[in-house]
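Sequence, C-alpha cells reproduced for reference:
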Amino acid sequence: MKIRSDILRVYQAVHTWGGICAGMLLFIGFFGGALTMFKGPLERWVSAPVVPVQQLAPAQVDRVVAGVLAQYPAAREEFTLHVARHEDAPAPVSWQAGESGHEIDLGLVRWQATLDGGGKLAVTQQQPSLLAELIDMLHRTGGIPGTLGEEYLGIYVMGVAGVLYFLALVSGVILLLPTLVKDFFALRPGKNRKRFWLDAHNILGITSLPFHIVISFTVVVFAFHDQFYDSLRGIVYRDQPMFAPPAIGATPRDATKLLPASELVRRVQRQAPGFEVTELLYMGVESPRPIVRAAVASPRHLVQAAETGFVIIQPYSGAILSTSMLPGQGNTWSSLVAPFFALHFGSYGGMTVRWLYFAFGLAGAALFYTGNLLWIEKRRKNQLKNGPLPAQPRRTANIAAATVGVCLGSMAGVGACLVAAKWLHAFGAHGNGAYLTVYYTVFLACVAWAFLRGAARAGSELLWACALAAAAIPATSLAAALVPAWGMWAHTSPATLGVDGTALLLAGAFAWAARRAARRARDGALDSVWSAAPAPAVVAAEPARRVGT
C-alpha cells in the first residue's frame, strides 16, 4: 500500500505531538486503570480484618432493617442491604455518614448492623479505607488536583487527552500501514535502540488497538457526559425528560410499611432471570419518592456499571420502576451506551477478563512510555565519527527527565500508599488522612529527583525505588504475620495473597529494568540523553565508544 510522503508527514506530526501532549497523563491513567481491576482485593489488603457474621434467615434480615430504620435516622436517607455476603460486607446492612461525591472524604464513617447471639440488633462502626478511591481518582484525573464545579479538574483534562489519544491511534495506524505486514511482529534488538523501541511500540499498539480505541472513546464520553446529556436534552428530547423519574407520592412514607427485603429480591429475580441479586440500595425511604436500586450481576452480560446492572423498584408496592440499566431490557439509548461502559470497566467475563484488562492496562502504560522514548531518540543530536560529543537540546533532556519522573513516580507513589496503610495503623494512625500526602510527596520527590540527577541516572535509581516499594508490600504482610504484636494484619484470602504475589512479580520486573537502565547509562552511546557520561566539554577529546544510535 502506497501513501504519499507529504500525507505521512502530516499524520506523523499528529501522532507525535498528540502522543507527547497526552502520554504522561495517560500513563498514570492506564496504570491506575489496571489497578482498579482489583479494587476489592486492594481495599481488603489495606483494611483490618473484620469478624465474620453468621448468615441470617430472610426474616432475621428484615428484623435488622426494621431495627436500623427505627434507631438510626441517618440510615433512612440511604442504606445498603447486602444480599450476596463476602469479605467486604460481612454484615447484612450498612450505611455511612459523609459525602462520597467528587472529592475524597477523609471523614467518611461506615456502620454495619446484624443480630447478636441473643437476637438483638448489633451495630459496629468503622472508617473504611479510601485507597481504592485514591487509585480511581488517579485513573480518572491523571493525578491532577483541584476541582472545577462539581467535578475534578483532571477529568476534563483527561477528556482532552482522550481526544489526542484517539488522534494518535488513528494516525499511528496510518503511519504503519505501508510496512504493516513486514514490521507487524518484528522485534529487532541490537545496537540500534531506536529501532528496538519502535518495534516494541508498534507491537503494543497494533495488538491492543481495539482495546485502545474503546478506552479512548469512552474516556471522552465519561469526561464530558454532562455536556453530551445537555446537548441531547436540548436537541433530541426537548421538553421530555431523558430519564423518567419515579412518580412522586402525595405525602412522605412510613418506613414501617416497607415490603420485606426477601420479597423485593424475589421480584427482581423474576424481572432479571439469570442474574444474581448482589445488593439493594434503599434511597429516601421516608421521602415522597422512595426507590430501591437492586444491583444484579452476571459475567455473561455487558452491564452498565463497574460490575453490575440495575433494576429500580418501588420499596412499598414492589412495582418495577425502571429496567433501563438491565441488559436486554433497556431502551435504545441504554442498549447503545451499556456496551461502552462494560468494555471500559471490564465488567464481563469474570476474573479472566479482569486479568486481561490488567495486562492491557500495563501494556497501555508501556505504549505511552515507549512513545516518549522514541520522540527523545529521534530528536537527539548524533555524534559524527571521530567528532566532538554534541550537546543535546534542552527540550530533549527535559522531556526525558519528565517521562522518568512522572511515570516512575506515579508507580512508586501508589506502592508507598499501600505500605503506609499498615505501618500507620501499627503506630495508631489511619491511612485515610495520609494517602494524598504520601502519594504526592513520593511523586513530586521522584519528579524533582529526575530533573536533578538527569534522566540517565534517575532512570535506574527510580526503578529501584519502584522495586523497593513493590517488594515492601509482601514484606509488610510477612512482618505482620511473624510479629502480630506490631498491630498489623496479614490476610490469607486468595485475593489478598494475589496482591502480595503480583507485587513481588512487579518488584522483580522493576529490579531487572533498573539493572538494564544502569547498564545503558554506563555503556550506551555517549551522544544519548540516556548516557551518564560527563558533560561534552569533558569527554570531547575521548574516543567515542559508539557512533550514532
